[in-house]
Amino acid sequence: MSAIVTLKKGEGRTIKAGGMWVFDNEIDTVTGTFENGEVVLVHDFDGYPMGRGFINVNSKIRVRMLTRKIDHMVQRSIREKVMAYLSFESERQKKQAFTIPYNRQQLADYLAVDRSALSAELSRMKKDGLIRFEKNCFQL
After folding, report:
1. Which of 32, 36, 40, 56 has the most CB atoms around it within 10 Å of its CB?
2. Distance, CA of 51 to CA of 49 (rounded, Å)
């Protein structure tokens, strides 16, 4: 697993606006182990994933963003996207039962899928015993 760079509160604006650099004074914590030049995950202060970048502790530009895509976005089917995202959230929160920060429409927008198709797939996944959920509380 990659190291995670967490930004200070209020410092994610430049990345969200398209910036490609994270300066050393914008970083709150770095968890996990890494070597200079490795790819790390970049999270906003509240744990929202913002992308991946190359880290270098010898530079004022601590992280050079590589991509804003997260692993669950490269999946093809809705089921694969949902399972990848829920697995990511479960691992991030270190819980089997967890709450996501999105309602159905926001989750559909985040995963770039149709809301009704997402709701139908969530129902099938629940019926298949893959997940349990109530509103935005999920259990794998």
Report:
1. 40
2. 6
Rounded CA-CA distance 54/39 in Å is 5
> 4-7 and 39-43 as β-strands: parallel, antiparallel, unpaired?
parallel
Task: Name 109's Cβ contacts closer than 8 Å, sequence gap at least 6.
Answer: none
Q: What is the pTM of this model?
A: 0.55
pLDDT band at residue 138, thresholds of 50, 70 and 90? very high
| pLDDT tens, position by position, 62-85 | 999 987 766 665 567 899 889 988
> What pLDDT score does 18 carry?
78
AA identity, residue 67: T
Neighbour-count burial of 17, counting CB atoms closer than 10 A to its CB (0-12 exposed, 13-18 middle, 19+ buried): exposed
